[in-house]
Amino acid sequence: MKRLDNAVAQFSKTAVSPTSQLAVQWTARERGGFGNPRYSRLGSLRYLGCGSAALRSVLPSGFLATWGLVLCLASAGASAQVDIAAGLAGGTPGATVPLPFVFQADSNITALQFDVLFDGTNFTSEAATAGSDALGHLAASALQTNGTRRVVLYSSTNAPLDNGIVVTVPFTIATDAPEGIYSVGLTNAIVSNLRGERVPLFYLVPGYLIVGTNWPPAQLRFPRFNQDGLRFVLTGTPETGYVVQASTNLTQWTSLSTNLAHGGVIFFRDTEALNFRYRFYRAVLLP
User: Fold this and answer.
1) What is the CATH number for 59?
2) Residues 56, 190: one domain?
3) Neighbours of 143 (CB within 10 A)
4) Are residues 43 and 11 in the same domain?
5) In terms of residue numbers, what domain contains 113?
6) Could you tell me if 98 and 224 lie in one domain?
């Protein structure tokens, strides 16, 4: 096995403020909606009823011209946590490459919305499609500004999402785009469960678009503690296997898990982390 450079990190126990929970139910009709608590209101709230049945009743054909999410306040929802990450994709100038968006949740999630932020000078985005792991779901998207595309994924039957690649957005690389690694951000994310309640996000992870062949090394990113232990995100070469290992002395390493970087992303959780005063982690590429 080959050890990867720049993939070793030490995570200390740090207090994490609890995520505020604003439970909502949602329908779709008007542009705008509410983002995460730290984001400002984007548009007016119009009460149309909640849940997937209401969504089907108000969603007109060709609604992409003025679309978004309208949220109806509801009682406090579950404390489940949800992760959404932009993956990695790359190619040469002039090529069109599909950028995957990876989802993970420990509860039944039926719908989500997020804005994708990208370099509008060197890339052109196209309509989103439901990913390979979003069976029974429909994707819709619209360009908000040059460099911002809003994506909605929903189910007309209230079907829960499976973990994995749930959305793909094609990007065309400009013919004169310089070689390099370009960040793709995520913002204004909203997630709804089977009962139409909003579920708090744990991770909203940016990804990369790569022009050329110089891909970034594997990285261990965004360490956070919660009641289940330590969580972090491993980003690396898409569809490649990695072993996550841990050590207390940087000499003896214990393998904790072996995973495939589906879309270039692995969400990792160490439930034993709180038993150690400190612990080091690294990613090892499978042969």
Assistant:
1) 2.60.40.680
2) yes
3) 16
4) no
5) 24-211
6) no
Amino acid 201: pLDDT: 84
Boundary (domain end) residue, out of 211, 242, 275: 211
Residues 17-56: tens digit of each pLDDT? 222 222 222 222 222 333 332 222 222 222 223 333 333 3
Q: Chunked in runs of 10, what are the mean pLDDT values of the chain (287 residues)?
A: 37 30 25 29 28 33 31 37 94 98 90 97 97 93 97 93 96 98 96 88 93 92 86 93 94 94 94 90 91
Spatial contact of 69 and 190, defined as CB atoms under 8 Å apart: yes
- CA–CA gap between residue 22 and residue 200 (Å, rounded): 8
Identify whether residues 112 and 227 lie together within a single domain. Answer: no
Do 64 and 140 reside in the same domain of the chain?
Answer: yes
Strand 88-91, strand 207-211: pairing: parallel
| pLDDT for position 79 | 52
Give me the number of domains the chain comprises. Answer: 2
The residues, any chain, with a CB within 8 Å of residue 21's CB and separated by 6 or more, are: 76, 77, 79, 198, 200
Domain final position from 167, 192, 211? 211
Q: pLDDT digit string (tens) for 62-89?
A: 322 223 333 322 323 445 678 999 999 9
150 burial (CB, 10 Å; 0-12 / 13-18 / 19+) is buried
Residue where the block lists tokens 């009460």: 47
Quote the DSSP letter at residue 65.
Answer: G
Same domain, 77 and 11: no
Model pLDDT, residue 133: 93
Nearest to 244 by CA among 11, 85, 8, 5: 8
| CA-based end-to-end distance of the chain | 5
The values of phi and psi at residue 88, to 5°, are -125, 140
Give the tokens for residue 123.
């890339």
Q: What burial class does residue 138 get, using C-beta atoms within 10 Å of its C-beta: 0-12 exposed, 13-18 middle, 19+ buried?
A: middle
